[in-house]
């Protein structure tokens, strides 16, 4: 009864797995899954035949084992297919089939021997399982999934092989081989249970691996679609759609941190003449060459975009106007010396192309459309002034109206940490003023003021500790000045959070109270004492 129930459960499970594999094979039109579907189909048939072994021993034992071996052969072939190992039916597999078939024919009809047939069955199951390990190891495993699962899969298959090797040993050493395996026996039960377990486990691993392959193909398709959507198909560089996301980040970064951001727009001179005289294929080669020349000379932070037609836009983060102009001049020269000799589609050989360049530096708060209009205007100015030249927006600095507070050497105290913190204080204050100049959002102003306020408090505490160390006799008076400035910073922060504050008011706080009133006047009072202290330390260290 137990044996029958076990067999029925095996049939049910393996048949369900086989059906699922066939459904996926048909739905996916997958040749790989077809081998796995055949494997589990043969396994189901072998389990069905096991049900009739008492009434029809030839079918229930001999044929059942033969078909089960075939199922594991198709499992091995499916693995070879999955890992792209060809040919699928190598010479080894033909050898297995010839030897296996001969053994079963000989020891079934000529020299009947249950022992040899059982040993052969386990041996071939172990061999085909080992073929799965071989396919797994031979494959380069480019997939992260397969790399991570390589060891567990090898261990699981090895355990299955070890079980069948153990079964072979038991078969060899057993005296009463017929009753041992033909009747109900714990080891027989264990054989079926192990087979059932590994059938389910193998199916799960196959489905997981197939799912991973499917996800890989989906991801590759997404990359292809993204490439089509955001890359110019002719030149291979980014198109205007790709510009949107990149520029949003750069504009926000500049508005937040006030770092320079420049634009270069260039247009191939007399491009229509090239198309008319040499053909559109020659024009395509010119565009490709121009894009490649620019692309290969960009810095890591720069980006080039096909703006349209024969126009290209280069965005240069962290770059001032003069720096962008220098790169534009370099690129103009590179374009002029390109050798088109040997170009595939150009019927007439020629050297060099010319282009007109417009260069601007964006000022914080300027909209992207205003930037585009301005750089386009400057580029056409280069066209108007004779082509093959670089034009700059000369009035840009006046338009920006930003404050740039330069650090003076006379502000150095002689103590590195104080000087470093003073410089950072000036930088943070300058950024705050300029954010007010360009009328940034209240959130940005409050963030900048909070950063300045926090730095002021930290700096004052550090400075007080240093003054204590160098034995400054006016330290208590200095602390009172610090406390007063901290209070003024707090009041200014609260005011910024409630109502608009003009840049002049922030400038007054930074210049009159912090830089002139405190750094230049109050702090300079202990600079000489600080320098003498540092000189004594240096002298002692030398001695």
Strand percentage: 5-15%
Strand order of the largest sheet: 2-3-1-4-5
- Low-confidence runs: 177-185
Shape type: elongated
Q: Helical segment tally?
A: 19
Query: What structural class should be given to the helix and strand makeup?
Result: mainly alpha
Mean pLDDT metric: 79
Radius of gyration: 40 Å
Distance between the termini: 99 Å
Largest sheet: 5 strands, mixed
Q: What is the share of helical residues?
A: over 70%
Count up the domains: 3
Secondary-structure element string: HHHHHHHHHEHHEEHEHEHHHHHH
Total strands: the figure is 5
Topology readout:
Layout: H1 2-28, H2 31-50, H3 57-82, H4 91-110, H5 114-138, H6 144-173, H7 177-182, H8 186-230, H9 240-257, E1 261-268, H10 271-278, H11 280-295, E2 303-308, E3 311-317, H12 321-336, E4 355-361, H13 368-384, E5 390-392, H14 396-400, H15 416-437, H16 442-469, H17 475-498, H18 503-522, H19 524-542
């Amino acid at each position: 009864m137990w044996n029958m129930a076990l067999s029925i459960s095996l049939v049910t499970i393996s048949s369900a797995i086989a059906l699922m594999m066939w459904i996926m094979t048909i739905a996916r039109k997958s040749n790989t899954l077809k081998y796995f579907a055949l494997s589990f189909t043969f396994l189901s048939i072998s389990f069905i035949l096991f049900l009739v072994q008492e009434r029809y021993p030839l079918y229930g034992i001999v044929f059942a084992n033969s078909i089960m071996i075939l199922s594991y052969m198709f499992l091995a072939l499916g693995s070879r297919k999955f890992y792209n190992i060809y040919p699928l039916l190598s010479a080894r597999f033909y050898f297995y089939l010839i030897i296996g078939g001969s053994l079963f024919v000989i020891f079934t009809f000529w020299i009947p021997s249950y022992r040899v047939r059982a040993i052969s069955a386990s041996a071939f199951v172990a061999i085909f399982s080992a073929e799965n390990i071989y396919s797994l190891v031979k494959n380069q495993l480019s997939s992260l999934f397969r790399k991570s699962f390589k060891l567990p899969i090898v261990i699981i298959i090895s355990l299955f092989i070890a079980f069948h090797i153990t079964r072979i040993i038991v078969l060899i050493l057993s005296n009463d081989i017929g009753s041992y395996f033909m009747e109900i026996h714990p080891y027989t039960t264990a054989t079926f249970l192990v087979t059932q377990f590994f059938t389910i486990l193998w199916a799960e691993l196959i489905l997981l691996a197939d799912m991973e392959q499917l996800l890989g193909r989906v991801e590759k398709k997404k990359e292809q679609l993204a490439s089509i959507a955001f890359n110019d198909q002719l030149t291979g560089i980014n198109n205007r759609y790709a510009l949107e996301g990149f520029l949003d980040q750069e504009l926000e970064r500049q508005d937040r941190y006030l770092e320079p951001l420049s634009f270069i727009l260039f247009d191939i001179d007399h491009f229509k003449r090239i198309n008319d005289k040499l053909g559109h294929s020659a024009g395509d080669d010119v565009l490709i060459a121009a894009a490649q020349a620019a692309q290969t000379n960009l810095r890591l932070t720069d980006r080039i975009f096909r703006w349209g037609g024969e126009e290209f836009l280069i965005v240069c983060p962290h770059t001032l106007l003069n720096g962008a102009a220098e790169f534009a001049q370099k690129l103009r020269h590179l374009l002029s010396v390109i050798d088109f000799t040997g170009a595939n589609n150009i019927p007439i050989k020629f050297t060099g192309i010319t282009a007109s360049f417009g260069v601007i530096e964006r000022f914080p708060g300027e909209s992207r459309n205003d930037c585009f209009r301005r750089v386009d205007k400057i580029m056409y100015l280069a066209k108007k002034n004779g082509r093959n030249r670089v034009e700059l927006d000369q009035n840009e600095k006046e338009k920006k109206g930003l404050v740039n507070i330069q650090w003076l050497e006379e502000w150095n105290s002689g103590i590195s940490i104080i000087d470093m913190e003073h410089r950072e204080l000036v930088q943070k204050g300058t950024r705050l003023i300029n954010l007010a100049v360009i009328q940034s959002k209240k959130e940005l102003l409050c963030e900048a003021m909070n950063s300045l306020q926090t730095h002021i408090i930290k700096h004052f505490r550090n400075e007080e500790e240093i003054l204590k160390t160098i034995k400054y006799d006016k330290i208590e008076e200095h602390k009172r000045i610090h406390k007063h400035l901290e209070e003024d910073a707090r009041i200014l922060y609260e005011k910024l959070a409630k109502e608009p504050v003009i840049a002049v008011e922030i400038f007054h706080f930074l210049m009159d109270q912090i830089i002139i009133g405190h750094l230049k006047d109050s702090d300079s009072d202990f600079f000489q004492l600080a320098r003498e202290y540092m000189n004594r330390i240096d002298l002692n260290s030398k001695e």
